[in-house]
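pls ignore typos typing on phone
pyridoxal-5'-phosphate + seq
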Amino acid sequence: MTSQNPVFIPGPTNIPESLRKACDMGTMDHRSAAFKEIITPALAGVKKILGTETGEVITFPATGTGGWEASIANTLSPGDKVLAARHGMFSHRWIDLCQRHGLEVQIVETPWGQGAPVSKFAEILAADKGHEIKAVLATHNETATGVRSDIAGVRNAIDAADHPALFMVDGVSSIGSMPFEMDAWGVDLAVTGSQKGFMLPAGLSIVGVSQKAWSAIETAKLARAFFDFRDMRDAVAAGGYPYTPAVGLLNGLSVSVDMLLAEGMDNVFARHTRIADGVRAAIAAWGMTPCAQSADLYSDTVTAVVVPQGFNGTDVVTHAAECYDMAFGVGLGEVAGKVFRIGHLGSLTDAMMLSGLGVAEMCMADLGYPIKLGSGVGAAQEVYRHGPKASALAAE
Ligand SMILES: *Cc1c(COP(=O)(O)O)cnc(C)c1O
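k done
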C-alpha cells in the first residue's frame, strides 16, 4: 500500500519519520568504535523498557519468532517437557516451534478469547513433584484474539508450587506498549521484535535474559550456533557483534528507546489504554463485541472484533485495502472469518485512530452491516475529547 494512511494491523506498526531516518544509514564498519556508540544505549534503553535491572538484553538479526527459537535453544535440551496453553495463533505457533525442536509440550487447550489458564497451570505445576516441567511458556498478549494474559498470575502459580521451571514470555505485541515487568514478574526469557512496540521495520529479535536463564545455558543441549546467547554477549561486551549486525535497525532501536523513555513509559501505556478504550467504545456502539471474553482480558494493543452471524470479517479487511487503502488485520486460525482485527499500538494518536474507525465503519456499511455511520467514531470521540491540554494552559 502506497497511500499516506496509517496502518491498523497489529504489527508491523507505523514507523515515525525520525525512526525511518535513523534506520537509513550509510555503510558502517561494525568493527569500528562507532558501533559501540549505537548498541550500548540501545540495549540499555531496552532493559528499562523490559523492567529489568538484573537481566541482559540480546538482539539478533531476525524477528520475534527467532527470539522464541533462541530462548528455547539456549536453555532447554531435546525431550525436555514444557508447559504451554494454546489459545490463539501465536501461542499455537510457539508450541509448534517447540515440538519441531523435539520438546515435549504439555498443552492446555484453552478457548480462543481467554487468557493463560492460571489456575490450571497452578494445578499442573503443583502436581509435578519431580520437576519434569523445565519451562512454562506464556503469551502475554495473544495478537490473534486481542487477549492480555495475567503474567504476574502465572508467576504466582509457579511460585506457589515452589517450582524451578524457567518462565518464558512472548511479549512481541505488548513490550513497549503495555506494562511489562520482567524482574517483578520473574520472567526468565522475554521475547519481542523490532516491528511492533518499538515502531521500527522488522528485522531484530530482542530477548531479555535473566541470570537464571544464563545459568541454564551451560547444561542445555538443544543445538544452537547463530542464536548462541554466549557468543552474542561476549561480542557485545567487546563492543562488537559475532557477525554482521543490522546497524541501521540497531540505530533505530537506540532512537526508539529514547523516544519511548522521553514520552515516559507511564504516558506511553496511558496513551495505548486511551486509544484502545476509544476502539472498544466504537465496537460497543456498533453493537459488536471484542473476541476477548472479559474486560480484564482486553488488550491495549489490538482488538479482534467479532462480526455478526452471516458476515465474514476477512471481507472487511479486503474491502478496506481495495477501496480505502487502509490495512486492518484478518482473523487467523480458529477465528478466521469470525473477526477482523484493529491494531492500535506503536506510533499512534487519537486522531489517527479516529481515521481508522471511520474507514472501518465505511467498509462495514458498504458490506451491509447493520451499523450507523458515525456511531463508532462518535463514541470514540467522547473518549478522546478533552479541553485544552494542561501544558497549553500552563503556557498561557
Ligand atoms: C507478531 C507476533 C509474533 C511473531 O513475530 P515475528 O516478528 O513476526 O516473527 C509472535 N508472537 C506474537 C504475540 C506476535 O504478535
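Residues 11, 63-65, 90, 139, 141, 143, 170, 172-173, 193, 202 surround pyridoxal-5'-phosphate (CB under 6 Å). The mean pLDDT is 96. more later
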